[in-house]
Amino acid sequence: MKRPAGIALALLVAGCDGVQSMTGGDGRQSQLFNGLFELYLWVTSVAYLLVIGFLLAAIVRRRGERQDQRPDPPGVSTERGLRGALAGWVGFILVGLLVLTVASYLADRSLARAAPDAGSKPFHITVTANQWWWDVEYSFVDKSQRIRTANELHLPLGEPAILHLQSNDVIHSFWVPNLAGKQDMIPGRAADLKIVPTHPGTYRAQCAEFCGQQHAHMALVVTVEPRADFDRWWAQQIQPAKPPTTALARAGHDLFMTRQCSGCHAINGEPAFGQVAPDLTHFASRPTIGAGTLPNAPGHLYAWVADPQGVKPGNRMPYIGFEPRELDAIVAYLRTLT
Ligand code: CUA
């Protein structure tokens, strides 16, 4: 193989095994899809090769006839051979279609089953889509056990999670290609999606329905981790925000509570109760800013608070007009929200 072709193939194959990959097979649902995809690929490939084979045979035969000018009438054995081939072809189509139909049905039934592991209770998580971010709430019967986060999802390895999906504005679509299929999120309509993650790792979910200007910047980071790590994350997330200790961070805290920030964002344990923007209680522990728009680092955070419309045009966060020293303080405070 030529070098550029080899590189292209390597890139193509590498593209199939990333943090956002339809063929990743990192969840039970995605494995079912992969199995079905492979079966379809085999059956349709054989059908395709047979069609091409017959076509080539016909061309070769016709050429041969032209060369001797006087075509012989088909002999009995050729006639029989052709009939046999035709019967085989019809048989193959019937069996192939039957296999694909039954396999699709079985895969669909398996997807419909809750597939809970013995003894484990499924997690109930409410994911609400907004232009252009994800609100994530772990709901339990006991209200004191609820946690709320945004643009990230943590799932314990091997345990079924039931996602209750809804939308606050337009139609979005929830899609973690490594773990499961897509589910549309239609305003006013609830939809559930079951996920059973089978491989630990960090995956990228992406809104899969065009929902406006920042549709592409509507990502969600999904972390699948062993139960002990998940419990550690949980124990940290359920805590209220720590009060700031440095003078700069305290100044940022006061700005946050007295300027526009707390009107939209909530911080558990602080007088910030806004409900229209991401909950920021443990903002600093999240990997990204603006639903996957930027990595969560001080420089990016500064740019984001200074000019949200410059970073993610069209998003709902307004320009506040903070002075540079106020920005320093706000960033210092937000960085304490671990
Ligand atoms: Cu939300 Cu596209």
Q: Topology, pairings included?
A:
Blueprint: H1 3-15, H2 28-68, H3 76-112, E1 123-130, E2 133-138, E3 147-150, E4 152-156, E5 161-167, E6 172-174, E7 183-185, E8 191-195, E9 201-206, E10 219-225, H4 227-237, H5 247-258, H6 261-264, E11 266-267, E12 272-273, E13 288-289, E14 294-295, H7 298-306, H8 308-311, H9 324-335
Parallel strand pairs: 1-5, 4-10
Antiparallel strand pairs: 1-2, 2-3, 5-8, 6-7, 9-10, 11-12, 13-14
Bound molecules: dinuclear copper ion.
The coarse silhouette is elongated
What is the rounded distance between the termini? 51 Å
Number of helices: 9
Strand order, largest beta sheet: 3-2-1-5-8
Largest sheet, in brief, is: 5 strands, mixed
What Rg, in angstroms, do the CA atoms define?
28 Å
Strand content: 15-25%
Bound molecules: dinuclear copper ion
Please bin the fraction of helical residues.
Answer: 40-55%
SSE order, one letter for each helix or strand: HHHEEEEEEEEEEHHHEEEEHHH
Number of DSSP-assigned strands = 14
Task: Write a brief caption for the model.
By secondary structure, the protein is α+β, with helices and mostly antiparallel strands. Helix content is 42%, strand content 18%.
Task: Please describe what this structure looks like.
- The protein is of the alpha+beta class.
- 42% of the residues lie in helices and 18% in strands.
- The chain is built from nine helices and 14 strands.
- A five-stranded mixed β-sheet has the order 3-2-1-5-8, with no helix packed on it. It has a three-stranded mixed β-sheet with strand order 4-10-9.
- It is elongated and about 100 Å long.
- The model has no long low-confidence stretch (mean pLDDT 87).
- It binds dinuclear copper ion.
- Residues 129, 132, 172, 207, 209-211, 215, 218 line the site of dinuclear copper ion (CUA).
